[in-house]
Write a structure and sequence with these properties.
CATH architecture of the domain at 123-230 in chain B: Sandwich
Strand order of the largest sheet of chain B: 1-2-3-6
CATH architecture of the largest domain in chain A: Orthogonal Bundle
Strand content of chain A: under 5%
Number of helices of chain A: 9
CATH class of the domain at 123-230 in chain B: Mainly Beta
Order of helices and strands of chain A: HHHHHHHHH
CATH class of the largest domain in chain A: Mainly Alpha
Order of helices and strands of chain B: HHHHHEEEEEEEE
Number of domains of chain A: 2
Number of strands of chain A: 0
Largest sheet of chain A: none
Helix content of chain B: 25-40%
Oligomer: heterodimer
Number of strands of chain B: 8
CATH superfamily of the largest domain in chain A: Winged helix-like DNA-binding domain superfamily/Winged helix DNA-binding domain
Helix content of chain A: over 70%
Largest sheet of chain B: 4 strands, antiparallel
Chain lengths: ~200, ~230
């Protein structure tokens, strides 16, 4: 995986539609496809569908690279959103994954799941800001109520909808929606407090 | 659509980042993202805060045909640098040229000094050949008797091992291109085919295409035309 700066550069080169565009796009594919396939697989649970979503997702990345805003956009997050949203749509239309089948879900080991899915260690290619933001996010996730944390991570990792979450957690829809909303609010308040607070 | 106030916008950004914003609501949000700068700005803020780096453990290697299929479907060949414009090519060429030069020098040392070349009739410039990609500018000169053509490249240009350059005459009166020479370098001097002497006149054009080694297999240009110039003398 490349750092954000390089991914951003390759996206701009792709959007330029000149003689170097195919080469830049190919580098983008070679370096980011494994991650994006993993993201799709987490949502879909079926390899052949994940590969299809990866294919369509990269088609969309090629076509919409020009709409990526290099100043405010987060390049990897931008690509992840494209592929993940597609996977979520396919999942909804194929009814591919029964929510009951998430044996590796968070109940057993909520901290473990967070650390299995994400890499919190500082990365050499990362800016100081990114590094700090990552640390704050990890700390703040740890401070959430367990139910909120579980709902957020399940939704993020497996692309579960509110309805899926309610079925999986065997809770009323309203309760689950509240967990998700409160969870995101608390997370944001906590991270923002870290930003302004003493380091 | 106008997306609501700050709190509402934050809630939407949060759900979008998380992935729980679905269906029509997500499509509305995505449209607002394109149309309303403050929405994109706020989402950028959320993504900066809430995009943890995925663990390498979740990565999966895509199938081998994946890239090929994508390349074909998106027609990416159009957006590739041609071989002669690629930096890698020039680097490889520089190495090859240096090696060739070294061999050439060695060869010169072994060989008896050549007879001095006979004085040629003066050459007159008849065309400047240029390309879309600035490979090199090539000047074409014709001897006064019209039998010898000389090409001089502003920058040395050599064909790759599997390629040749082919020089074509595009007759002033129209009609199919006529092959004048198959070349390994765009610095060359050669006798014109007897049938073409006298046809290199004002209004005709010279063109260089890239062909398989040994020249076009069909008798017409098959590869990319890299240089063209009109004859003005």
């Amino acid at each position: 995986m490349l750092d954000d700066k390089e991914v951003r550069r390759l996206l701009l080169r792709t959007a330029a539609r000149d003689e170097g565009s195919a080469e830049a796009f190919e580098r983008l594919y070679r370096s980011c496809a494994p991650l994006l396939l993993g993201v799709a697989q987490r949502v879909l649970g079926r390899r052949e569908l994940a590969e299809e979503v990866l294919h369509d997702g990269f088609g969309a990345i090629w076509r919409s690279a020009e709409s990526f805003d290099p100043v405010i956009g987060q390049p990897v997050a931008w690509m992840v959103a494209i592929v993940r949203n597609r996977a979520i749509d396919v999942r909804a239309s194929h009814d591919v994954a029964r929510v009951d089948s998430y044996h590796d879900a968070l109940e057993d080991d909520p901290e473990g799941a967070l650390d299995r899915l994400f890499d919190w260690s500082p990365d050499a290619g990362e800016s100081e800001d990114r590094r700090r933001a990552s640390q704050w996010l990890r700390d703040c996730l740890g401070k959430l109520k367990a139910a909120e944390r579980q709902a957020l991570v399940l939704a993020y990792e497996h692309g579960l909808s509110h309805g899926d979450l309610a079925a999986h957690l065997r809770k009323p829809l309203g309760t689950v929606k509240t967990w998700v909303r409160r969870g995101m609010e608390n997370l944001r308040e906590c991270v923002e407090a870290c930003m302004v607070g003493p380091r | 659509m106008r997306i609501g106030n700050g709190t509402k916008l934050d809630a939407l950004c949060g759900e979008y980042v998380l992935g729980t914003l679905r269906g029509a609501a997500r499509r509305r949000f995505e449209r607002a993202l394109r149309e309303e700068p403050r929405v994109a700005l706020q989402l950028g803020y959320w993504q900066a805060l809430f995009t943890p780096r995925y663990s390498k453990m979740i990565e999966l290697q895509p199938s081998r045909e994946g890239w090929k299929r994508l390349e074909l479907e998106l027609g990416l060949a159009r957006y590739r640098a041609r071989w002669h414009a690629r930096a890698g090519f020039w680097r490889a060429w520089a190495v090859a040229a240096t090696a060739a030069l070294a061999l050439g020098v060695g060869f010169q040392l072994l060989r008896p000094a050549p007879e001095p070349a006979p004085e040629l009739t003066p050459l007159l410039e008849i065309a400047q050949l240029t390309g879309k990609v600035d490979v090199s500018r090539v000047t074409a000169k014709l001897s006064r008797d019209g039998r010898t053509l000389e090409l001089r490249a502003a920058r040395a240009v050599l064909a790759g091992p599997a390629q040749s350059y082919e020089l074509w005459l595009l007759p002033a009166e129209g009609g199919a291109p006529v092959s004048l020479a198959v070349l390994g370098s765009l610095d060359a001097r050669f006798a014109l085919p007897p049938g073409q002497v006298g046809r290199l006149r004002t209004g005709a054009k010279l063109a260089v295409s890239v062909e398989p080694a040994g020249g076009s297999p069909t008798g017409a240009p098959t590869g990319a035309v890299i240089l063209v110039g009109e004859i003005t003398a």
